[in-house]
Design a protein that fits this description.
Layout (H helix, E strand, L loop, with lengths): L2 H12 L14 H23 L2 H8 L4 H7 L2 H25 L4 H18 L1 H13 L3 H26 L9 H17 L1 H7 L7 H19 L4
Helix pairs in contact: 2-3, 2-5, 2-7, 4-5, 5-6, 5-8, 6-9, 6-11, 9-11
């Protein structure tokens, strides 16, 4: 084998890590941040804020712990970032729905569909919210108030406009309409173990969610139509 071929052979061998060696990921700030948020959401959902160790989050994400402090400063900053990401997704979808609302039926249907789809794919976040409510922490309330309050205020104005047009009964405050939609949509996910204990066949699967969407939509519309 010539010297040139030997060097080429050695370079090709060195480009592949030996079996069992850790994979070296390319440095990518966006991807690293995403992995950290995914890992943190999983850990916070399983253990609660107090039970999470940053070392374990870093290990799950496959990065050095120092990067958590680089991107999020501390555990509370990481926790807020996890909540921010989820709430931001809902907020953006809500603004889109409000911006294209042309009928009561469409508005309610889109919001119910969005809430059910979000809950079905964000079980970890719902577990975090439930733990936070039980612990008395106010972090999630701060995040929701900062991001979502303007959306809810806009939704109230849209519902008021439908009331003024006579498309909704005017004796029900818009805030109560929103609360009813939230309660009917979120409760089956937040209290799934209780509902499964009462009805062993209860499931939050796609087929049942479609039927639930139609049920919630129909009940809300029947209750909100003008009297008589």
């Amino acid at each position: 084998m010539t010297r040139c071929n030997t060097v080429s052979f050695q370079m090709s061998r060195s480009s592949n890590p030996p079996p069992g060696a850790p994979i070296r990921r390319e440095r990518n700030a966006t991807e690293t941040r995403r992995r950290l948020l995914d890992a943190a959401e999983q850990e916070f959902a399983a253990k609660g804020f107090a039970g999470v160790r940053l070392r374990e989050v870093a290990q799950t994400a496959g990065v050095q712990q120092a990067l958590i402090h680089h991107y999020f400063e501390d555990k509370e900053g990481l926790y807020r970032a996890v909540l921010d990401r989820a709430v931001e997704q809902v907020t953006e979808n809500a603004w889109t729905i409000l911006g294209q609302a042309t009928s009561v039926e469409g508005l309610l249907g889109d919001f119910i569909d969005m809430l059910l789809r979000f809950c079905s794919s964000h079980g970890n976040l719902l577990a975090m919210l439930r733990m936070e409510a039980l612990s008395g922490s106010t972090i999630v309330l701060d995040v929701i108030q900062a991001q979502s309050r303007p959306v809810f205020e806009a939704a109230e104005r849209v519902l008021q406009a439908f009331q003024q047009k006579g498309q909704l009964r005017s004796d029900v405050p818009p805030s109560e309409i929103i609360v009813s939609v939230l309660a009917l949509s979120l409760f089956p996910f937040l209290e799934a173990p209780l509902l499964q204990a009462l009805w062993p066949t209860f499931r939050n699967d796609p087929e049942n969610l479609e039927a639930r969407k139609r049920t919630i939509h129909g009940m809300i519309l029947v209750g909100l139509r003008g009297k008589g």
